[in-house]
Each structure stands twice: as C-alpha cells, then as structure tokens.
Automatic annotation (TrEMBL):
Pfam families: FAD-oxidase_C (PF02913), FAD_binding_4 (PF01565)
Keyword Lipid biosynthesis attached: no
InterPro entries, per database record: FAD-bd_oxidored_4_C, FAD-bd_PCMH, FAD-bd_PCMH-like_sf, FAD-bd_PCMH_sub2, FAD-linked_Oxase-like_C, FAD-linked_OxidoTrans_Type4, Oxid_FAD_bind_N, Vanillyl_alc_oxidase_C-sub2
PROSITE patterns, per database record: FAD_PCMH
Species classification: Bacteria, Pseudomonadati, Pseudomonadota, Alphaproteobacteria, Rhodospirillales
Source organism per UniProt: Dongia mobilis
The FAD-binding PCMH-type domain, residue ranges: 46-224
Name this polypeptide is given: Glycolate oxidase
C-alpha cells in the first residue's frame, strides 16, 4: 500500500472529533487496541491498523461520515463482515474504515414482487432463513454465507455453489441505495425487473467499494424448487472428472450446482464433516439437479450415464433432504477443513473455459512440484471458477512469498487459456498487480475514468484494483472550480 499521508495523520484528532459529533461516541473507534480487530479481512497475510473506525447505524450516518471524510481529504475503506479473500477491506493507516455491520436489518419482504429489501450488514444466509417458511430463498450462496454480508456480496459480485444455474449476485439484484463520497444518496433500480438507460446497477455490482457505499439492497427471491437431489461420484484422476464436467454441460444439462474436489480436499473435508466421501478417489464430483420431480429423475439418469462413461465410480444419489445436505456439507466446509491440515493456506480465485479444465489441472500439478508446495483444489467446476488452496507455513522463511508466486502463476495460466483473474473474490490487493496480464493500458485507463466520475479525489478504497492509480487530471478529467470549467471561453459540445 502507498505510504501514509502525513497531513491526514496530523488531522486525525480533528477528524475523529467531527465523526463523534455526527455518529456519537459509540460510533467511532480510535483506541489502538480496539482498532486491532479491523487490521485485515480474510486475506490475513496483509495487515494494517486503520486511522479510525466508524460504525454508522443508518444511511444518514453513512452519508455524514463520508461527507466529513470528503471535506477532510481522508480516505475511506468500506467493510462488511470482513470475509473478503482478496484484501478488498484491507485498511489504510491514513484512512477511515467504514464498518457497516450495524446496518443489519431486513427492512421488507415483498413476496408478491418476489423481492426483499435489506441493509448491507445482513448476512447472506439470513435472507433465505427469513423467507424459508413461505417457500422462497435467495439463490447466491458463497461458502461463507453464514457470515458474509450482502453488501460485501454486492461489492465483490459473489457467487457460490448454485451460481451455475441461478447466476451470481449481479443476476439477483433489483435495486441499490448508495452513498457517494460527497455524502450524496442515490437510488438505483427498484422492484421492477429491469431499468432503462445506463446500467449503473451492473456497474456498482463488483466495484469493490471504489465508486460508492451500499446502504440498502433489493434482492430477487426465488421459489424453492419442487425437488432437489445431489449426486456424487469418484474419479481416478482430476482430468477425468474435468472431462465429465465438460461433457455434462456439452449435453445441454445445466445443473443447479456442479462442484469438484481433488484428493487432498476430499480427505480434509471427510475428516472434518464425515460426509461419506470416497477416500480412494483422486477427484470427487458433486452434481445437484433441481426442478419438477419427473425432470430431476430423468436428468439424474442422464448425468449418471455421462459420469460412468468418463470413469466415475461409486455413484451415490441423495434419497432425502438430509442426505442432500450431508453431501454438500463437506464441500461447504472445505476451506476450514483444509485449515486443519496446514498451518496456513492461500485461497486463489480464477475462472477458465470449462473445456480447458483438464489441461489447467495438469499444469497446476506441475506448478505444485516446481514450488514444492501442496495444493488442494476446490472449485465451482460447472462455471470454471477455480479455488486452489495453496498450503504453506508462514513461519518458514520464504514460504509465503513462494505461495504468492505460485498463486500468481495460476492466475496467469487462467488468463493464458482464455479465462479471467477472478470469478467472485474480486481483485482487491491480491490481484491488483496482475491486472496488466488481462488488461492493456487503454482498458485500465478507461476503468479509472469511471472511478474518477464517481470519486474525483480518489478517496474511496484507494490502492485497490488498479496497479497504477493516476490522478483524474492525468486521465483527462475536467474539474469544476468555483463553478467554472477550465477555459470557460471555449465552446462546449
């Protein structure tokens, strides 16, 4: 991160006093010990204690905090539950950390319009729990859904097991309330199916806190399918399982979810959850099919035949809801399970074309040998979103740096085969310096011009996403000073 601005550090006491006047004493933290829990997000390899933490309780308080920061020239890092794995909520030593955890109410459930209006601090799973009795649910389901907040899901465009059929966060949003760095409150979209003109809703989703702070979210609710059944099978190699994935999609079948785990992940998950996974397998494929019962029965037969034709064995199909949840339990708990077999692990996130999966898995095995580090693979196989978990020990000199280099090579490989740097975890600081691997200078400059349109002073989450953060003036932005554009004598078109 860039070195702290000494002027901002000097202004900290006045800034904190202004925040306390607006938010109350309980809404502002400046004590060094009390700041320590906010020093990192889920990417714990990087830590930085913030200048101060603000804990607003309403949209009005968020607007007030941002307005004060803007007037004081203080940078702001928005934070939800802190489960981000890309360093998106990494604080700044000269910046305010804006915690949104107190905005945690479900404001309205509107079943006739199949939507719910929630504050950003509501956890992902809480939305589904709130509407379960009426037979509805919220589709995106990250593995951290018990803890991750819906505002963070919007910032990172989170996915999950069921994003293959039902889409990521961006496909399940209807409206947002956002606050700009100036304190201005905007409402985008609503309860209607779609909006005309510019797709600002799509622009905000996945913007990683660089454009505005989300203070209210209107999400789409779906009716629970009549039937949902999970099936799993073991394979003698990850390449064979990957080929089965491509064949299932190639047959025109879109499962509700299709996940894959390799041998290290299988053993870690089974030891942790005891889901009945085949320990002799080199790879495990889990496929969920949902819909009307007759359709699900037919799809199970078709998928079973494809799995068998690609060497799958030990096919098991859930016969009850409890058994379905048990099959998924190991996959949902794979990350903490891997944490039991290694002092540290580095969770990657890249996306590739499904047809290149066997090749990428083979080359990742070669990279594992090259770096001398084990890797456990857990990923959303259906949409090609990989989550390799690189195992290392931070107490051993050089292993963290080796894990980072290994991860960078995996992401370069993803781009090389026609994929992208991230599927759902975002860029943050983790992938920031790899952005030129995927984008040229013209592309990056254009993205930064969008940033300038929302945040001309570059105060919102600076140091994230862009490898080189230019001033807006360098990108051709024109600023109004004293109510006048530069060179007011020139005609404007």
């Amino acid at each position: 991160m860039p070195p702290p601005d000494q002027a901002a550090l000097a202004a900290a006491p006045r800034f904190a006093a202004a925040l306390r006047e607006a938010l109350g004493p309980a809404g502002v933290i400046t004590d060094p010990v009390a700041l320590r829990p906010y020093e990192s997000d889920g990417l714990t390899a990087y830590r930085q204690v913030p200048l101060a933490v603000a804990l607003p309780r309403s949209t009005a308080e968020v607007a007030a905090a941002l307005r004060i920061a803007h007037e004081s020239g203080i940078k702001v890092v928005p934070r939800g539950s802190g489960t981000s794995l890309s360093g998106g909520a990494l604080p700044l030593a000269d910046g305010l950390l804006l915690g949104l955890g107190k905005l945690n109410r479900i404001l309205e459930i509107d079943l006739p319009n199949r939507c719910a209006v929630v504050q950003p601090g509501v956890t992902n799973l809480a939305i589904s729990h709130a509407v379960a009795a009426d037979g509805y649910y919220y589709a995106p389901d990250p593995s951290s859904q018990i803890a991750c907040s819906i505002g963070g899901n919007v910032a990172e465009n989170s996915g999950g097991v069921h994003c293959l059929k039902y889409g990521l966060t961006t496909n399940n949003l209807l409206g947002l309330e956002i606050v700009l760095i100036t304190g201005e409150v905007l409402r985008i979209g609503g309860r209607h199916l779609d909006a005309g003109l510019y797709d600002i809703l799509g622009l905000m989703t996945g913007s990683e806190g660089l454009l505005g702070v989300v203070t209210e979210v209107t999400v789409r609710l779906l009716k629970k399918p009549e039937t949902a059944r999970a099936m799993m099978a073991g394979f003698a190699s990850s390449e064979a399982a990957g080929a089965a994935v491509a064949a299932i999609i190639g047959a025109g079948i879109i499962p509700a979810g299709m996940e894959m785990m390799d041998r290290p992940a299988i053993h870690a998950a089974e030891d942790f959850v005891h889901a009945g996974y085949p320990l002799e397998a080199e790879a495990l494929l889990i496929v969920e099919l949902d819909g009307p019962k007759v359709e699900v029965d037919d799809l199970i037969a078709r998928v079973g035949a494809i799995v068998a034709s690609h060497g799958g064995s030990g096919l098991r199909v859930s016969e009850s809801e409890a058994e379905r949840l048990t099959i998924w339990a190991g996959r949902k708990a794979a990350f903490p399970a891997v944490g039991r077999i290694s002092p540290d692990y580095y969770c990657m996130d890249g996306t590739i074309p499904r047809g290149r999966l066997p090749e990428v898995l083979r080359r990742m095995t070669q990279l594992s040998a090259q770096y001398g580090l084990r890797v456990a693979n857990v990923f959303h196989a259906g949409d090609g979103n990989l989550h390799p978990l690189i195992l290392y020990d931070a107490n051993k000199p050089g292993e963290l740096e080796a894990a980072e280099a290994f991860g960078s090579d995996i992401l370069r490989l993803c781009v090389e085969v026609g994929g992208v740097l991230t599927g759902e975890h975002g860029v943050g600081v983790e992938k920031r310096d790899l952005m030129p691997t995927m984008f040229g200078e013209v592309d990056l400059n254009q993205q930064q011009r969008v940033k300038c349109a929302f945040d001309a002073d570059l105060l919102l989450n600076p140091g994230k996403v862009f490898p080189t953060l230019r001033r807006c003036a360098e990108l051709g932005a024109m600023h109004v000073r004293g109510g006048q554009l530069p060179h007011p004598d020139l005609p404007r078109f």
